[in-house]
């Protein structure tokens, strides 16, 4: 988060009060990042509002503020186009449910943005202030390949950065699978051996990232259930999740687990992608 020098803030034409801008100001106030305000609307001119917001931000001490209105085929494509053109390392967008029956669900355009945007995306789902709150980082400690190790480091680094700027506490959740009698590896046939292996992996993880026992939450079961459960239990204000998308996967989609988790979480969600996925998506965006 400290390395973020430019933030793309997606504003909603229908809502003057922007939770996304509130979060962006908090981050930029600490990092000094440039704020680029974006209004995506092909029907109405918002230049007066954008100028007013920029002026107010300057008055509040944010010296590096730019803005534009853009529309390119669809909402998520408009955002990604500007993100690439401006070189922004973080996109912040508010999610407002458009249908009471789907209150917890993200809209299709939000999903496409999370799946296809080459940089980190912060989806603002709550009005709850970050200050003094719990930041929850979700990792898969049992996955030790290089792509996951790098992604875990990024998730924890972002977690510490947000905890620092919000004067909050970083907690980590890692779910391990339930035993499967059909598993080819005997380790995964017994709860005791699975948990032992995960505990050993967690000990190394804790030493590497300086995570104390009271802030590490290990549980057996599916991540898409345990992560929202832990978020609610800790009353976390923001949850950080990552995805490793392999090249060759169409559109480098976020996995199903991450999708279910994102819908179930009540607070803000920061989605990070592996370096491989970022490079692949940037290539697709340029094409």
TrEMBL record:
Domain UspA: 5-125, 135-273
Source species, domain of life: Bacteria
Keyword Cytoplasm included in the entry's annotation: yes
Keywords assigned: Cytoplasm
Coiled-coil zones: none
Stored Pfam families: Usp (PF00582)
GO cellular component: cytoplasm
Localization per record: Cytoplasm
InterPro entries: UspA
Transmembrane among keywords: no
The protein's role, per its UniProt record: Required for resistance to DNA-damaging agents.
Family membership noted in the UniProt record: Belongs to the universal stress protein A family.
Name by which UniProt lists this protein: Universal stress protein
